[in-house]
UniProtKB/TrEMBL annotation:
This is PBX homeobox 4. Coiled coil: none annotated. Residues 221-283 bind DNA. GO terms for molecular function: DNA-binding transcription factor activity; sequence-specific DNA binding. Residues 7-28 have a biased composition (Pro residues). Belongs to the TALE/PBX homeobox family. Residues 115-126, 309-327 have a biased composition (Low complexity). It comes from Neovison vison. Keywords: DNA-binding, Homeobox, Nucleus, Transcription, Transcription regulation. It comes from the Eukaryota. Residues 1-31, 105-132, 308-327, 344-385 are annotated as: Disordered.
Length: 385
DNA sequence: TTTGATGATTCGTA
DNA sequence: TACGAATCATCAAA
């Protein structure tokens, strides 16, 4: 604390040049007083208190004090001010931002969406309800981390406050015996805060690591496959089999399918990707499924009588309006029924995508060539597109 | 436990 | 960038 050099104890008698000039000594000389001051810390508390009191009352004390002040003024400036606290480091700011983004820094909110991370994360997997468990688990663990973080932070802050108060009091107390300027106390408080900030940074770093670990585990968990709901599968299959000649839903169609099935657009894309490739690989296997859906479509078409499956199937650029006849989707479906059993590679000129990839015409027979119901192709917008 | 089904991911391609 | 193809990982029924 004190920057003044302290001699080894027991303090040797001061050399002659430092001794006060000879004169009528009213009591112990200055050297003796200084020696007593230096020896105070070696004594027992009671003894020291008594001596301290005696020294405080000594008539030479003000003079000694002013000498100490003078010496300190000369030395303190050169010693202090060297290690000023710099601005918060980039690392600390990064940690703060991260904790804020993860919802750890903020106080916990009640109700749904306890954290930004949990609320902002989409819930792929088909069944949002299934994920709620993982979600609540994630939120619970994040909440646990948040609690520990805040509790530790509070502890550190309290310890910091207590220690600061203690040191401040100590310095104020010492200021009665030696010159301690308010600025010096302030600087000391700054040093203490700096030390505690370092500890806080470690705490923040550990918290960040914990959140990252939790997050990665959560993301891994999301990777787990969940079967789509029956409704989602039906919606997707209906679209697929009703647009068999061109099972490439537009973005709008995907969005609508996603909405209807309660899944994400990305999952719709995945599903169609898988479906196309699997259908193409083993069309025989899907015949029964195709029959089921095409029959369903046909029934729906009959029931609705004109609007047909368009009511249940999202529109697609390739399956646009085909006029007043409900043949757009049902047409495909009927064609599917008739052609599934006699599948054979078709000549070029299939659907839209088949032109681009050369893949689909081999799977979904072009209506104009493979379908006995060739007439339908003329009104099937899928084929015509 | 095995096996088929299926959603997700990755990589190459046009 | 969307798609096909291969593959992985998991689910669920047998």
């Amino acid at each position: 604390m004190d920057s003044l050099p302290r001699p080894q104890r027991p303090a040797p008698p001061l050399p002659a040049p430092l001794r006060p000039p000879p004169g009528p000594p009213p009591g112990p000389d200055t050297g003796e007083v200084l020696q007593q001051i230096m020896a105070i810390t070696d004594q027992s508390l009671e003894e020291a208190q008594a001596r301290k009191h005696a020294l405080s009352c000594h008539r030479m004390k003000p003079a000694l004090f002013s000498v100490l002040c003078e010496i300190k003024e000369k030395t303190v400036l050169s010693i202090h001010g060297v290690q000023e606290e710099g601005p918060p480091s980039a690392q600390l700011m990064r940690l703060d931002n991260m904790l804020l983004a993860e919802g750890v820094s903020r106080p916990e909110r009640r109700g749904r969406g306890g954290s930004a991370a949990a609320t902002s994360t989409a819930t792929p997997g088909g069944c949002p309800n299934d994920n709620s468990l993982e979600h609540s688990d994630y939120r619970a663990k994040l909440s646990q981390i948040r609690q520990i973080y805040h509790s530790e932070l509070e502890k550190y802050e309290q310890a910091c406050r207590e220690f600061t108060t203690h040191v401040t009091n100590l310095l104020r107390e010492q200021s009665r015996m030696r010159p301690v300027s308010p600025k010096e106390i302030e600087r000391m408080v700054g040093v203490i805060h700096g030390k505690f900030n370092a500890i806080q940074m470690q705490l923040k770093q550990s918290t960040c690591e914990a959140v990252m670990t939790l997050r990665s585990r959560f993301l891994d968990a999301r990777r787990k496959r969940r079967n789509f709901s029956k409704q989602a599968t039906e919606v997707l299959n209906e679209y697929f089999y009703s647009h068999l000649s061109n099972p490439y839903p537009s973005e709008e169609a995907k969005e609508e399918l996603a909405r209807k099935g309660g899944i994400t657009v990305s999952q719709v894309s995945n599903w169609f990707g898988n479906k196309r490739i699997r259908y193409k690989k083993n069309m025989g296997k899907f015949q029964e499924e195709a029959t089921i859906y095409t029959t369903k479509m046909a029934v729906d078409t009959t029931k609705v009588g004109g609007l047909g499956s368009q009511a249940s199937c999202p529109s697609t650029p390739s399956s646009g309006s085909s006029g007043p006849f409900p043949l757009t989707s049902a047409g495909d479906a009927l064609i599917t029924l008739q052609t599934l059993t006699s599948l054979r590679p078709a000549p070029a000129g299939g659907g839209l995508r088949s032109q681009a990839r050369g893949g689909w015409q081999g799977a979904a027979p072009p209506v104009s060539t493979a379908s006995p119901a060739g007439d339908l192709s003329s009104v099937n917008s899928d084929a015509s597109n």
